[in-house]
Amino acid sequence: MAKGSEVRFGRNAAETANGPSIEPFFEVGNRLLETWAAVGTEILEFSKTRLDQGLELSRAMARTGSVSEAMDVQARFTRSMVQDYISEANKLADMSTRSFLGSFAAMQKQAKSQSSGAEAAE
User: Fold this and answer.
1) Over the stretch 62-103, which tens digit does the pLDDT of each residue have?
2) pLDDT digit string, tens, across residues 23-76
3) Cβ atoms of residues 103 and 36 within 8 Å
4) Does the reported pTM lie above 0.70?
C-alpha cells in the first residue's frame, strides 16, 4: 500500500472512509444513561419522602384518641399519598419523554447531515 493511501484508524475512521459515523449512537447512549441516573435518583428521593411520611402517619395514628380520629388521619394520609404518586408519575414520564426526544434528535440531526453530504457528493 502506498504511503499516501493508508487508512488511519482513530476516532473518526468511519467518517474518513466516507462511511456513517457511530458517534451519534454513543451520544444517545450517554444521554440515556444520564437521564436514567437522574430518574433513579428521583425515585430514591421520592421513596425516602414516602417512607418519612409513612413513619409520620404511624406517629399520628398513635396519638389519636378514637377510632374515628384514626380513620380521619388515615384518610388524609391516603389522599396525600395518591396525589404524591400521581405527581411523581407525571414527573418521571416527563423526564423520560424529554430524554428520548432529546437523544434521538441528535441521531436525526446526524442522519440529515450525512444524507445532505452524500447528496452533495453526487
Assistant:
1) 999 999 999 999 999 999 999 999 999 999 999 988 888 877
2) 777 877 888 888 889 999 999 999 999 999 999 999 999 999 999 999 999 999
3) no
4) no
Give, in order, the Cα–Cα distances in Å from 82 to each of 52, 87, 89, 100.
15, 9, 11, 27
Name which of 7, 3, 29, 28 is nearest 18 in CA terms.
Answer: 7
At 57, list the grid cell. 402517619
Contact 103, 28 (CB under 8 A): yes
pLDDT at 43: 96
Q: Tell me how crowded residue 24 is: count the other CB atoms within 10 A of its CB.
A: 19
β strands within the chain, DSSP E: none
Set of cell numbers at residue 60 = 399520628
In the chain, the amino acid numbered 51 is L
Q: How far apart are the first and last CA of the chain?
A: 27
Q: For residue 70, what are the CA distances in angstroms to 32, 55, 74, 82, 96?
A: 45, 15, 6, 18, 39
Q: Where are the domains of the chain?
A: 65-112
